Amino acid sequence: MESSPLSWDEFLASSKELLCISQRLNDGWNWSDTQDGWGYLHKTELKSSSGNESADDVTAEQPGKTILVWEYHILYSPAYSCPVLYFNVRDQDGKFIGLDSTIGQLRFPAKTGRNYLSVVSQSEHPILRKPFCYLHPCHTSDLIIAAEKGRTNLLIGWLSCVAPIVRLELSLEYAKPNET
């Protein structure tokens, strides 16, 4: 790699590999092209608000459980030369649960403490032009450089580091070498 952590071409190649694995696993990742020649990965999962059930175990009939719709988007940031994870959490009627409630659903590393604003914020989605939460990309290059050791897919390496924060389930199958 050159001076930037991840180029657009590397992001595209890594995204294609992630999509191939996702298709094999049938776990819901998709790609959407944009009118300006860019694109992004996206996935939606249902989760219990308690966080103890996997998406497969969540049903609307569970008394006392709130079912939440988690929407994940991975975009490329030309400014930071790295991926950025955008996400939203809605109730089943499609209403955003609010930033404070969303923050309460996240799993921050212990050293973050209550300083969650150094990790997550809410802003306009650069493609959809709707409010979305996102993980700050300012330290993503450090994660990509760390993930570079021993990995061929830097996007998957980065995603495996940040997925637990946003309760994104990522199969261990993503860590296996690609069998193409």
From TrEMBL:
Source organism superkingdom: Eukaryota
InterPro entries cross-referenced by the UniProt entry: Atg3/Atg10
The entry's keywords: Autophagy, Transferase, Ubl conjugation pathway
Family named by the database record: Belongs to the ATG10 family.
The name this protein goes by in its record: Ubiquitin-like-conjugating enzyme ATG10
Signal peptide range: none
Pfam families registered for this protein in UniProt: Autophagy_act_C
The UniProt record lists the keyword Transferase: yes
Keyword Transferase belongs to the record: yes
